[in-house]
Design brief:
This protein folds into two domains: 140 residues, Aspartate Aminotransferase, domain 1 (Alpha-Beta Complex); 248 residues, Aspartate Aminotransferase, domain 2, CATH 3.40.640. The protein is an alpha/beta fold. The chain contains 14 helices and twelve strands. Helix 13 crosses helix 14.
Length: 396
């Protein structure tokens, strides 16, 4: 016997991609270039690796689930500086918890927050979306409701009926968005906060792409920044999730944090204490080093800008593409069914992209990812340029 909700989980997008390509042979005379997976491939900062090695002596003790004070202080300091939160509002003892990558935290948060005893529990999420949101809702005993993206790329909150807000217990947002790159501005975030107050739900903001943006003078705002602008010093009903994977090219470190409403985090800490997910001491030391440095993050952004410039010069006109507001994805419409385009590009050019329909669901008005593909500009600049040239050739 097992939890029957496990049967409701859908295959992960990359499982579906592998099944789509099964038996199809790409040209052997061309190296494979993958734009399918959003795994950063820029070099990891050397000083972070050194901090990891230097603190292996911490292996001789059990780490605390809530992490060392020094790590929580580094997290709160970074949040305050980056998102214009007044000094003293973020208390390291109450407002932040380290997590072993935001993927596990985004999933676990729903398990701790959804009230299974409340009939008609709903978890609202963007569509297209990061599939962890859907799995988290289903395994928490709630029903997912998909909010289709507007032409601008963020969920169409105006289309949500009052009854859906009333049944909502948890709203996942992703800003900057995966895969659209769209950003919710302060006014939109504050509107969601007011809706959360009115209808008694929690906002979980996935902000893992917040540090990859084109204009150094205009970083994307965040949910806690919106709270601060409202004078909401307790961050009630609001939590944010951040990661070192994209910001610092450290996906293998599995390090991030959740921060915000102290009462919600107290419950999440209790859950995590039983869940057994404390961050190893050496990982904490490496994380402190990463959160305390911005130079490597600026260099990272510069490299992504270079890649976007080069790729958009090749594909901008053929695919009608513009630079996204943030993140490292392109989300173009393609001239045929997304799965056909993906398979044809693989068969003829040995380039991997991800069908947009694999990242979305048909919530009743069609799948908003159909006839789109996701391209992750994570490879080295030269590889991204070659991939773009091959895609243009395939289009022609």
């Amino acid at each position: 016997m097992s939890n029957p909700d496990l049967d409701r989980l859908q295959p992960y997008p990359f499982q579906r991609l592998a099944a789509l390509r099964e038996g199809v042979q790409p040209p052997a005379d061309r190296d494979m270039i993958s734009l399918a997976m959003g795994e950063p491939r820029h070099p990891a900062p050397g000083f972070v690796a050194e901090a990891l090695i230097e603190h292996t002596h911490g292996l001789a003790r059990y780490p605390a689930t809530r992490g060392d004070t020094a790590l929580r202080e580094a997290i709160c300091s970074w949040l305050s500086s980056r998102f214009q939160v007044p000094a003293g509002w973020l208390d390291p003892e109450r407002h932040a918890l380290p997590v072993n990558g935001t993927r596990e935290a985004l999933f676990a948060f729903a398990q701790a927050m959804v009230d299974r005893g409340r009939p008609g529990a709903r978890v609202l999420m963007p569509n297209p979306f990061y599939q962890i949101y859907e799995g988290a809702a289903l395994l928490a005993g709630a029903e997912p409701r998909y909010l289709d993206a507007t032409p601008g790329g963020q969920p169409d909150f105006d289309a949500v009926p009052a009854a859906a807000w009333r049944d909502c217990q948890l709203l996942y947002i992703c800003t900057p968005g995966n895969p659209t790159g769209a950003v919710l501005d302060n006014a939109q975030l504050q509107r969601l906060i007011r809706l959360a107050d009115e209808h008694d739900f929690i906002i979980a903001a996935d902000e893992c792409y917040s540090e990859i943006y084109p204009d150094e003078a205009n970083p994307p705002p965040g949910l806690l920044q919106a709270c601060a602008a409202m004078g909401r010093s307790g961050f009630e009903r609001c939590v944010v999730f951040h990661s070192l994977s994209k910001r610092s090219n450290l996906p293998g470190l599995r390090s991030g944090f959740v921060a915000g409403d102290a009462e919600l985090l107290a419950g999440f800490l209790l859950y995590r204490t039983y869940h057994g997910c404390a961050m190893p001491p050496a990982t904490q030391a490496a994380s402190i080093a990463a959160w305390s440095d911005e130079a490597h993050v600026r260099e990272n952004r510069a490299l992504y800008r270079q890649k976007f410039d080069a790729v958009l010069d090749i594909l901008g006109k053929p695919l009608g593409l513009e630079r996204p507001q943030a993140g490292f994805y392109l989300w173009p419409e393609v001239p045929e069914r997304d799965t056909d385009f993906t398979l044809g590009l693989w068969r003829e050019e040995h380039v991997a992209v991800l069908p947009g329909s694999f990242l979305a669901r048909d919530g009743g008005t069609g799948n908003p990812g159909a006839r789109r593909v996701r391209m992750a500009l994570v490879a080295e600049p030269e590889a991204c340029v070659v991939a773009a040239q091959r895609i243009r050739r395939y289009l022609q």
